[in-house]
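Predict the 3D structure for this chain.
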Amino acid sequence: MPSQAMSRRAFLAVGGGALLLAACGGSSSSSSKKSAASRASGAAGLSAFRMEIEPYVSMTPQRFAFILIKNSNQGYASGPAASISIAPPGGSFGAAMPATLHTDGLPPGRGVYVVEPTLNVAGNWRGKVKIDGHGEVELAFPVSANPDTPIVGSMARVVPTPTEAAPMGVNPLCTRTDDKNKAAPCAFHTTSLDQVAGKGKPVVVMFATPARCQSRYCGPVLDQLIATAPQYQDRVTPIHVEIYKDLTSNDLVPATDTWLGISGEPWIFAMDGTGKVTGRLSGAFATDEIRTLLDRAIA
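Done. Predicted structure below.
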């Protein structure tokens, strides 16, 4: 069943009218092109959804992530070993690739399955997920020839981002809250991206909106960066950018629009000291993946 985008932060239609709160990609203008996740059916009551927001054509292997869902109650089914084989448009399925399950920093019972395929042609690809003890499911995903977001090896889009000194009309600057639902903004709003990108020091920039996230996967990503950043201290400059200008409108922060286009969110990008993008994660990711992202930026 095709995804049904209800806003920029997409609800996905799943079976008999039930709704799965999935990754935060897609919009009313892009739902047919780039949905945040794709449903697969069967497999003894399990479904698989892709969480990678924008796979793109490349001869270099890239991250591709998916999750498992229980059809009966839309609960998460993280845990079983899984592999995936993929087929290009009009082609046959290749060899199965064992998926690595990442759970570090994610809420209990949730995990992200990751493989690194080579996606060498644009169009609609198919995936066949084999889940130990549960049979097989299929999913579909588009591969973009011209991604909206910066890809690995490209240069950062050097634009100003809202800061405490220059909020650029964004209020609140950070929608993060604590476990009592009180405002608890992160400390990553003191530096504008255009002041540090390409200036000799690696930078990591996260585009995410904790308060308006409709997914129990994309919500924790800012806390994951907060937990990881102290390990890198002065070696990397972390920046957080909200998606929307306020808590109620759909007006995008200009830097978010420039970096993400209509691709969806959340995203995290790492850049080396020259401003070249060295890694990116989208949709849902674990804390250990963020550490790997930062390690590559400073290598």
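The domain at 148-299 is CATH 3.40.30.10 (Glutaredoxin).
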